[in-house]
């Protein structure tokens, strides 16, 4: 109870603060609250993931504190929206990019997510992104648009290429997260509302995917191929959700991509828009691989895993809600 309430408190403190020190304190509480949840498994991989996460987040927090102190030194203001010094704004952008896992500062995210169970992975991929994004959304008028576009383009490339040769579902979801964050950040200087829309839809679709894999008890590609025999309806929902994450037209995930590409072309940013649209195809390729494994392979086929013939029936209201939204919201 203490840990989960601290997790909520850290994010809410960052949401409501306009003073740099309180923002930093909220981000620190957030980091320290999730560490016990990560290390709860008592597994060497969980310990490694927690250590990596702590070191990365501590570095990002130190950099953010340095940026805010430098800004206060030059402007005499500790207010969040008074980011006058361009050097401080760039440092703050880099610190927040490291916090959420944007390329080229993404190196920790796949490794950390791989060491966690699916529930903690869900918290890390959704809730932990909210506080840094709240800061970015308040800072966006003073941030450098070229830097944000560069980080966004690089993230969509890394998110597409990195996920191609993976067999672990958590690593695939980590690279998918990097690609989605790239889309959000690249549109931030031009349309504040589109970033918010994309963030909300990303959280809904990612939550659905994590909850589906948790229900099907799957962490590898070969273990989801037996899902159609366990639960045919769930495997169809998984297919639709994965296609929605990839951004195919009739589904919810198409909406933010479409609107972002439209806005980028309005701003005459034709090259970034083209690059991002092309790299979205790379992401779509590994989502299609997952769809193929989930729904289109015949089961029982000779797969290297234990099959549970008797599965418990469970009514998961959150999964039902998020799945409906991630498929039909368009």
TrEMBL record:
<keyword id="KW-0830">Ubiquinone</keyword>
<keyword id="KW-0496">Mitochondrion</keyword>
<dbReference type="GO" id="GO:0008137">
    <property type="term" value="F:NADH dehydrogenase (ubiquinone) activity"/>
</dbReference>
<keyword id="KW-0472">Membrane</keyword>
<dbReference type="InterPro" id="IPR003917">
    <property type="entry name" value="NADH_UbQ_OxRdtase_chain2"/>
</dbReference>
<feature type="transmembrane region" description="Helical">
    <location>
        <begin position="147"/>
        <end position="165"/>
    </location>
</feature>
<keyword id="KW-0249">Electron transport</keyword>
<feature type="transmembrane region" description="Helical">
    <location>
        <begin position="233"/>
        <end position="249"/>
    </location>
</feature>
<dbReference type="Pfam" id="PF06444">
    <property type="entry name" value="NADH_dehy_S2_C"/>
</dbReference>
<keyword id="KW-0999">Mitochondrion inner membrane</keyword>
<feature type="transmembrane region" description="Helical">
    <location>
        <begin position="89"/>
        <end position="109"/>
    </location>
</feature>
<keyword id="KW-1133">Transmembrane helix</keyword>
<protein>
    <recommendedName>
        <fullName>NADH-ubiquinone oxidoreductase chain 2</fullName>
        <ecNumber>7.1.1.2</ecNumber>
    </recommendedName>
</protein>
<feature type="domain" description="NADH:quinone oxidoreductase/Mrp antiporter transmembrane">
    <location>
        <begin position="17"/>
        <end position="282"/>
    </location>
</feature>
<dbReference type="GO" id="GO:0005743">
    <property type="term" value="C:mitochondrial inner membrane"/>
</dbReference>
<keyword id="KW-1278">Translocase</keyword>
<keyword id="KW-0813">Transport</keyword>
<feature type="transmembrane region" description="Helical">
    <location>
        <begin position="51"/>
        <end position="69"/>
    </location>
</feature>
<keyword id="KW-0812">Transmembrane</keyword>
<feature type="transmembrane region" description="Helical">
    <location>
        <begin position="269"/>
        <end position="292"/>
    </location>
</feature>
<comment type="function">
    <text>Core subunit of the mitochondrial membrane respiratory chain NADH dehydrogenase (Complex I) which catalyzes electron transfer from NADH through the respiratory chain, using ubiquinone as an electron acceptor. Essential for the catalytic activity and assembly of complex I.</text>
</comment>
<dbReference type="InterPro" id="IPR050175">
    <property type="entry name" value="Complex_I_Subunit_2"/>
</dbReference>
<dbReference type="GO" id="GO:0006120">
    <property type="term" value="P:mitochondrial electron transport, NADH to ubiquinone"/>
</dbReference>
<feature type="domain" description="NADH dehydrogenase subunit 2 C-terminal">
    <location>
        <begin position="284"/>
        <end position="330"/>
    </location>
</feature>
<dbReference type="InterPro" id="IPR010933">
    <property type="entry name" value="NADH_DH_su2_C"/>
</dbReference>
<keyword id="KW-0520">NAD</keyword>
<keyword id="KW-0679">Respiratory chain</keyword>
<comment type="similarity">
    <text>Belongs to the complex I subunit 2 family.</text>
</comment>
<feature type="transmembrane region" description="Helical">
    <location>
        <begin position="172"/>
        <end position="190"/>
    </location>
</feature>
<dbReference type="Pfam" id="PF00361">
    <property type="entry name" value="Proton_antipo_M"/>
</dbReference>
<dbReference type="InterPro" id="IPR001750">
    <property type="entry name" value="ND/Mrp_TM"/>
</dbReference>
<feature type="transmembrane region" description="Helical">
    <location>
        <begin position="196"/>
        <end position="213"/>
    </location>
</feature>
């Amino acid at each position: 109870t203490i840990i989960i309430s601290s997790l909520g408190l850290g994010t809410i403190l960052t949401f409501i603060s306009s003073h740099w020190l309180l923002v930093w304190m909220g981000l620190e509480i957030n980091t320290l609250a999730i560490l016990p949840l990560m290390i709860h498994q008592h597994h060497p991989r969980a310990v490694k993931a927690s250590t990596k996460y702590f070191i990365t987040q501590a570095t990002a927090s130190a950099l953010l504190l340095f940026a805010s102190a430098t800004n206060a030194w030059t402007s005499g203001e500790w207010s969040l929206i008074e980011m006058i010094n361009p050097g401080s704004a760039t440092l703050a952008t880099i610190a927040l990019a490291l916090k959420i896992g944007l390329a080229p500062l993404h190196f920790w995210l796949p490794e950390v997510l791989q060491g966690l169970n699916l529930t903690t992975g869900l918290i890390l991929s959704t809730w932990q992104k909210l506080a840094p994004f709240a800061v970015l959304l308040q800072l966006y008028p003073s941030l450098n648009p070229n830097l944000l576009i560069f980080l966004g383009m690089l993230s969509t490339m890394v998110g597409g290429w990195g996920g191609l040769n993976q067999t672990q579902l958590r690593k695939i979801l980590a690279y998918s997260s990097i690609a989605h964050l790239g889309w959000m950040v690249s549109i931030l200087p031009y349309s504040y509302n589109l970033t918010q829309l994309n963030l909300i839809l990303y959280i809904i679709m990612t939550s659905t995917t994590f909850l589906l894999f948790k229900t099907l008890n799957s962490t590898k590609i070969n273990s989801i191929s037996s899902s159609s025999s366990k639960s045919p309806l769930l495997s169809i929902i998984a297919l639709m959700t994965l296609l929605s994450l990839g951004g195919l037209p009739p589904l919810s995930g198409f909406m933010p991509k479409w609107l972002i590409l439209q806005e980028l072309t309005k701003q005459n940013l034709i090259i970034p828009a083209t690059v991002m649209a092309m790299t979205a195809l790379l992401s779509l390729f590994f989502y299609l691989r997952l769809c193929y494994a989930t729904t289109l392979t015949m089961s029982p086929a000779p797969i290297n895993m234990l099959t549970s013939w008797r599965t418990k029936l469970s009514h998961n209201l959150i999964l039902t809600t998020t799945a409906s939204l991630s498929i039909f919201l368009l």
